Amino acid sequence: MSTIRLLVGLGNPGPEYSQTRHNAGFWLVEEFARRYNLSMQPETKFFGHTARLQKGAWDLRLLEPMTFMNKSGKAVGALANFFKIKPEEILVAYDELDLPPGVAKFKTGGGSGGHNGIKDMIAALGSPDFHRLRIGIGHPGHKSKVTGYVLGKAPAQDQHLMDDTIAHACNSIELLLDQDMRAAQQQLHSFKAQSES
Prior knowledge:
Layout: E1 6-9, H1 24-35, E2 41-43, E3 48-55, E4 58-65, H2 72-82, E5 90-96, E6 104-108, H3 116-125, E7 131-136, H4 146-150, H5 156-178, H6 181-189
Parallel strand pairs: 1-4, 1-5, 5-7
Antiparallel strand pairs: 2-3, 3-4, 6-7
């Protein structure tokens, strides 16, 4: 059985960002919380919104850092230190430019891939060994367009694919909690989101 104790979703706080691609991690945590009727509560000492899910053998904390993306590690580090949660017990969901909408992949460890939220988490935790859930948002085609792209809203078709993928990724997280990363990866990596006909 997996020992994931903390599920983090990365994003930016505030209504002006809530529908932007960079908030895909928030969308995932909110979807997961919704399934279990959890409400994310502000917790100032962890610089974010948190909830706790205790179900059977699961004891999982959920976290949305409210520090803005580039300082995500501040919130994750504060909560992980307080509850003595090791990097390998953390799963973080975030937007991934290198995957198309409709695709999500698990990954463990490695570099930040240029993602500022992940970069800050590695620095705060002193380790890259946490698990990642990369939610595809697609790429605008040129580096110079990335900032505007991640902070922009996706067209309806892409949003539908991302929502579909996030729902499926939540199923895979449940499998991860019940079984292990291998089972969760097999389920998630074979998934193909359906576009609206």
